[in-house]
Amino acid sequence: MRIVWAVTCVLWAALPAQTAVVPTKSSEAEFEWKHHNNQELEQVLKEVAERCHDVARLYALNKPSVRNVPLWTLELSDNPGQHELLEPEFKYVANMHGNEVMGRELVLGLAHHLCQAWRAGDPHVRKLLSITRIHLLPSMNPDGWQLASDTGGRDYLKGRANNNSVDLNRDFPDLDRIMYSNEARHVQHNNHLMDQLRGLDHQPQPETWAVMKWIMGTPFVLSANLHGGDLVANYPYDASRSGAAQEYAYSPDDSTFRHLAQVYASRHPRMSDPHRPPCTPGDYTFGPDGGVTNGAAWYSVRGGMQDFNYLSSNDLEVTLEVGCDKYPPASSLQQEWLDNKEALMEYMWQTHLGVKGVVRDSLTGQGIPNTLIHVKNITRINDTHVRDEDINHDVTSVHNGDYWRLLVPGDYEVTATAEGYLPLTHTITVTNPPHQEALRRDFDLAPLPDDSMLRQVTGEDEGGEVYDTYPRGQEPNLYELPLEDDLLGRLRDMDRMPY
């Protein structure tokens, strides 16, 4: 679905803006490893934003929690507050389940570390922040955190959900069902699926809406969602194809996702240890598997944030289970930081895998947003065989035509296709040297001749059918969003927008 830019701008303007914050003055005190309450979390982020005001910006997502707690987010970049051409965007989200609290403290500690390292002139952090725009959301569920903390932080479920008793990681639109239906009908449409969604069977929670709008409105390339209760890096798909409780669900980017998960697990001292015991006696331990798992192979989840990112936007996301204890004692947090620090840092560098570039009009030099970037793997397997395999998950260019496509090393054909232009294909070799920017390959597209445009014949509608998110065989009354707050329609219209 093509979106008229002028209409998109109107829709975007109609959405509530993210709230910028003027940080408070702070001291140079070292980070205190403790369980920060919601007020202390805000204060830590404000102090970091003040200390590193040249590279940090604090803002809140456009909706607060049910109990009206802002979803504070810290941006770190050498030019905070705006997207820069060819600079990829990254996010960490933690504390989605309110009683899984270690990720919340790790993300706060990471914010402090990045600021201090920038100020100290650390060359690796300086380079990372100069070529990456990083967003840190320490708590997506501050209300659940409050309940878990008020009740002692020892219950396995209490505080997991938000204040309306909804599990936020089951609350996103079920785009997996649309994607699997497309597969069954041999429709090669596996990306930006919000344009096929016409209604919902429930009203997503305010925290979910806020993150949905954030995902659709920011050109994220890579992200991770930090959970607790196990020690494993989990990658898409989270939902099984057949509906089975456990079933490996391959995505078109399976090799890239496995690489991303392995980057984190291999840099954690215990996650990939083949000899470590399971978190719960009798449970499975992922150490012999390198500390990684496919989501649906572990257990199938519908309506999760991980798959929503992949199927609604350009973002590849994995879920990190960072510790066996959901609510560990404060005395263990500093050691947990030391165990996770290298993995957290190295994972962010993966934002620069593969290829990036700018798609331009060859006559005017203007960037072309919403260009489809399709990739075929042509890596040679041996002397006589080439893989010759389409990766059926396209990304789109954004803003002024810039795009990013995460890929593992190999040989690829990359094709740019935009409405009104002749498609163009480049052959590239991806090597991914560590801590370097992605290979750059620009596309200068020639406009279609006038007579060709008049004689264009559209083939099968790539958008496929539209769906409601009710389970198969059930016909609930669709929740109709009020006209004045039709976020679903606006989010759908932002699909494939140039952000």
Descriptive account of the structure:
InterPro entries: CarboxyPept-like_regulatory, CARBOXYPEPT_ZN_1, CARBOXYPEPT_ZN_2, Peptidase_M14, Peptidase_M14_domain. Residues 34-351 form the Peptidase M14 domain. It is found in: Secreted. One of its GO terms (molecular function) is metallocarboxypeptidase activity. This protein has 499 residues and is of the alpha/beta class. It has 13 helices and 19 strands. It has two domains: 5-352, Aminopeptidase (3-Layer(aba) Sandwich), CATH 3.40.630.10; 355-451, Immunoglobulin-like. A nine-stranded mixed sheet has the order 1-2-3-5-4-7-10-8-9, sandwiched between helices. Strands 11, 14, 17 and 18 form a four-stranded mixed sheet that branches. The protein has a four-stranded antiparallel sheet with strand order 13-12-15-16, with no helix packed on it. α3 crosses α11 and α8 (254-266) runs antiparallel to α11 (333-349). The protein starts with a helix and ends in a 6-residue tail after the last helix.
